[in-house]
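pasting for the record
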Amino acid sequence: MKNNTTLPRSFYERDTVEVARDLLGKHLVRVGGGVARVGRIVEVEAYVGAHDLASHSSKGITPRTSVMYGPPGHAYVYLIYGVYHCMNVVTEPQGHGTAVLLRALEPVAHLDGNTKGPGLLCGAMGIDRRLNGHDLTSEDFHIEDPGLEAPISIVERPRIGVAYAQEWAEKNLRFYIDGNRFISRK
């Protein structure tokens, strides 16, 4: 049964930086075999469109990036280094080429393995290219609001691994929950 706290499409159809910050503290849920794997999102990076030289969308619409240009609230999953999958959440209205990379999760339920890094969290959650384009308002794979919790302090830093992106490498588009021990890097 679909949880009534699943984030609606309208949550994603907003400014990418706002969505990135608002994803912190939310729960990523993947249901399989009758078991719900749940992780609290503690670190993200915003990729703000084709003008952002660190974004995959800076190369335009390709078979790989077409999901980024699609409707908001879908998963953009790709393979890096031929080994690791990474998951992004598509944001803003269709045609913008924007997304938020999930960088780290704090385990909440039925989540084994290291979740401190985008490839590792995908491995622990069983996320791979088969979920590319998946609707994140679905019952089996979604992000939900766990309800009221204590306010969080958000740290803003430059993204990781994008030195090639010229001035975009220094922009504070990485966000994480201050003091959380599950972030990938301080």
